[in-house]
Amino acid sequence: MDPRNPNDLSICGTLHSVDQYLNIKLTDISVTDPEKYPHMLSVKNCFIRGSVVHYVQLPADEVDTQLLQDAARKEASQQKQ
Amino acid sequence: MSFLKSFPPPGSAWTEAVLKGKGLGTGTLCTAESRLSWLDGSGLGFSLEYPTISLHEVSRDLNAYPREHLHVMVNAKFGEESKESVAEEEEDSDDDVEPIAEFRFVPSDKSALEAMFTAMCECQALHPDPEDEDSDDYDGEEYDVEAHAEGQATLERLEGMLSQSVSSQYNMAGVRTEDSIRDYEDGMEVDTTPTVAGQFEDADVDH
């Protein structure tokens, strides 16, 4: 996944966990804008504050949007009960 | 009333703070619940508010930096003492871009790094943005995507819901009643040929 921070910092990595504030922990990360941030952050664990994330880009072939839509609809209707 | 968790490395070791590649000296890094602060031996220091900390990580890549450290990115401006570095900063940054500062906290005992990282994660969770008020439909626990058992159970439940939803479409579409016709006025694809012979025989011819 690729959470894009403000200041155009893009970080690519494997999603480890996420909490209710959408704070994200990534592992095996790499920086996709090496010109702006010349060091590669090849670290084990990176914690990103949810409020600074502008976009999260997921690989399309790993997301079943139909399942997501129906599941979200069902969950929302269940929560209203 | 903040609960202080201070992380001075064991023994006589200290944590060096580095801002923009410039060492600020060695001191003590304090991961308090209220804020992150660093103090050098003479009482000088600074503190960082968690909402301004956009990212933190343990950097073990010695090619990026020669020593393992806690890397912290902050959405704030920190004044440089020398005029040269201020000019350098203005050249690189646009006016519209938020200021961002990178700190490196280099403990002389690198075994403290995991604890420092974890403490900061916990403290970050204590300082969510006040705007996010509609996010309390979750029980607050961190969702670990690697916890396969729970994830699998959730996935199976959701897939079950999906298959129910799909099968109910076909069941209803096979029964051509007045009610089912109304239900599908939202444009879902339905077989329009009458399944009951003579269903429309009583319709007016000239309408």
TrEMBL record, chain A:
Keywords: mRNA processing, mRNA splicing, Nucleus, Ribonucleoprotein, RNA-binding, Spliceosome. InterPro entries: LSM_dom_sf, Sm_dom_euk/arc, U6_snRNA_Lsm2. SUPFAM superfamilies: Sm-like ribonucleoproteins. It comes from the Eukaryota. One of its GO terms (cellular component) is precatalytic spliceosome. Transmembrane segments: none annotated. Residues 1-58 form the Sm domain. It is found in: Nucleus. It holds the Pfam family LSM. GO terms for biological process: mRNA splicing, via spliceosome. Gene3D superfamilies: 2.30.30.100. One of its GO terms (molecular function) is RNA binding. PANTHER family: SNRNP CORE PROTEIN FAMILY MEMBER (PTHR13829), U6 SNRNA-ASSOCIATED SM-LIKE PROTEIN LSM2 (PTHR13829:SF2). Belongs to the snRNP Sm proteins family. Binds specifically to the 3'-terminal U-tract of U6 snRNA. This is U6 snRNA-associated Sm-like protein LSm2.
TrEMBL record, chain B:
The keyword Nucleus applies. Keywords: Cytoplasm, Cytoskeleton, mRNA processing, mRNA splicing, Nucleus. It is found in: Cytoplasm, Cytoskeleton; Cytoplasm, Cytosol; Nucleus. Signal peptide: none annotated. One of its GO terms (cellular component) is cytosol. InterPro entries: ICln, ICln/Lot5/Saf5, PH-like_dom_sf. Transmembrane segments: none annotated. Its main location: cytoplasm. GO terms for biological process: cell volume homeostasis; chloride transport; mRNA cis splicing, via spliceosome; spliceosomal snRNP assembly. Component of the methylosome, a 20S complex containing at least PRMT5/SKB1, WDR77/MEP50 and CLNS1A/pICln. May mediate SNRPD1 and SNRPD3 methylation. Forms a 6S pICln-Sm complex composed of CLNS1A/pICln, SNRPD1, SNRPD2, SNRPE, SNRPF and SNRPG; ring-like structure where CLNS1A/pICln mimics additional Sm proteins and which is unable to assemble into the core snRNP. Interacts with LSM10 and LSM11. Involved in both the assembly of spliceosomal snRNPs and the methylation of Sm proteins. Chaperone that regulates the assembly of spliceosomal U1, U2, U4 and U5 small nuclear ribonucleoproteins (snRNPs), the building blocks of the spliceosome, and thereby plays an important role in the splicing of cellular pre-mRNAs. Most spliceosomal snRNPs contain a common set of Sm proteins SNRPB, SNRPD1, SNRPD2, SNRPD3, SNRPE, SNRPF and SNRPG that assemble in a heptameric protein ring on the Sm site of the small nuclear RNA to form the core snRNP (Sm core). Belongs to the pICln (TC 1.A.47) family. This is Methylosome subunit pICln. It comes from Canis lupus familiaris (Dog).
